[in-house]
Write a structure and sequence with these properties.
3 helices; 0% strand; elongated
Length: 95
């Protein structure tokens, strides 16, 4: 909970600093890196989703299979969310 409050305070104070700035937040190079990051995160998420599909054919105990699938789902969802967040930044600041 302390981390959430700290992050919120930092974000609010930094947004006030950027309010009076006329410089673009992301330059062209940063936009290109953001776009490449989106592709990378989507690629990793796709790989993890494919690994989940392969798990149904794996020779493991049922508990081991479920644990591995849960781990893969968590990773795939995390990378999908990162790609979505980067896409939002790209759409707002780079288009």
């Amino acid at each position: 909970m302390k981390k959430i409050v700290l992050i919120s305070v930092l974000l609010l104070s930094s947004s006030l600093t950027w309010a009076n700035n006329d410089e673009p937040l992301l330059n062209e190079a940063a936009c290109i890196e953001t776009k490449e990051g989106i592709g990378y995160f989507l690629g990793v998420a796709d790989y993890l989703f494919n690994e989940i599909e392969k798990q149904q054919y794996a020779v493991q105990t049922e508990e081991g299979k479920k644990a591995k699938e849960q781990e893969l789902y968590e990773g795939a969802i995390a990378f999908s969310q990162l790609a979505a967040n980067y896409s939002t930044v790209y759409n707002v600041w780079c288009k």
